[in-house]
Amino acid sequence: MKRNAEFEFSAGLRWTHWLRAIAIAVLTVTGFYLTYVFIVPEASDEPILFLNAKFRMWHEIAGFLLIAVTLFKLYLFLIDKVSMKERIAFLDFISPKVWIQQIKYYLFMGEHPHLKGVYNPLQFIAYVGLYAMVFVISLTGLILYVHMYQGGGIGLFLYDFMRPIEAMMGGLAMVREIHHIVMWGILIFLPIHIYMAIFNSIMGKEGSMDAIISGYKFTKHDSKH
Ligand code: HEM
After folding, report:
1. Which of 22, 63, 69, 224 has its CA 20 to 30 A from that of 130?
2. Ligand 1 in contact with 138 (CB < 6 A)?
């Protein structure tokens, strides 16, 4: 069957996708360390090891990377011309017909619906959920951060904004708890996301995994989705 190469994801969107994947991987490993110190350096009489501080430093670097990438992705979603296909997916999201067809497809009971945008309704709602989780984990992360760097820079700038939010959340210990629980939300999202991406790539036979690397997928000649 003849196939058309169709440009789906812009370079900005693909770069931010993989940078975010790296940031989340670093944040998860370093975050688990901050929860439970699973490596202890060889004992030394000199105060030179600072392993905890180093883990925290990499955690915060990856944290600010995640925040920057998410803000840029949000900007692309709302403003960028190529991302119009992402925005149009909202129309599929509010269509009950597409919802039913999509669920039937995943249960091997019907054909894939013809979509207007690049995301099906289940994908769309999953990504909205992911953004909500990234928002909460970033906010709680910043609250934890301002307690470490109040001397200047972003820490000092954000300090007065973060303290009332911290109080609303029930105090610093609670903020840390929420930060930790949301991590598990993201860790549950990830395998489902990867399973769905592989499922769609294999079942749809359109190289949909290629699109997040090269930007192109390969649509069937006679199909619109
Ligand atoms: C996917 C994103 C993230 C994950 C999975 C994650 C995970 C974690 C975990 C598990 C902890 C330990 C909490 C505990 O159990 O006590 C932690 C602490 C912390 N996180 Fe995150 N985090 C993320 C994003 C962020 C962001 C965006 C920031 C903002 C800069 C941030 C800043 C911090 C800080 C400052 C701490 C406290 C470190 C300490 O007490 O020594 N995190 N994070």
Report:
1. 224
2. yes
Enter the tokens of residue 163.
């303290």
* 186 and 133 Cβ atoms separated by less than 8 Å: yes
pTM beyond 0.85: the answer is: yes
Q: What is the pLDDT of residues 137-179, one digit of tens each?
A: 999 999 999 998 888 899 999 999 999 999 999 999 999 999 9
pLDDT digits (tens, 9 = 90+) for 44-57: 888 778 899 999 99
Ligand 1 site-directed mutation target among 33, 38, 56, 59, most atoms within 8 Å of CB: 59
Domain segments of the chain as ranges: 3-220
Q: Is the CB of 144 under 6 A from ligand 1?
A: yes
Let me know the angle formed at the C-alpha of 188 by 186 and 191, rounded to the nearest 5 degrees: 105
Q: Is the dihedral of CA 147, 62, 8, 225 positive or negative?
A: negative
Residue 45 Cα to ligand 1 midpoint, Å, equals 29
For the segment(s) 3-220, the CATH number from 1.20.950.20, 3.40.50.300, 3.40.50.920, 2.40.50.140 is 1.20.950.20
What is the distance in A from the centroid of ligand 1 to the CA of 36? 12
2: exposed, middle or buried (C-beta count within 10 Å: 0-12, 13-18, 19+)? exposed
Helix and strand numbers, DSSP H then E, in the chain: 8, 2
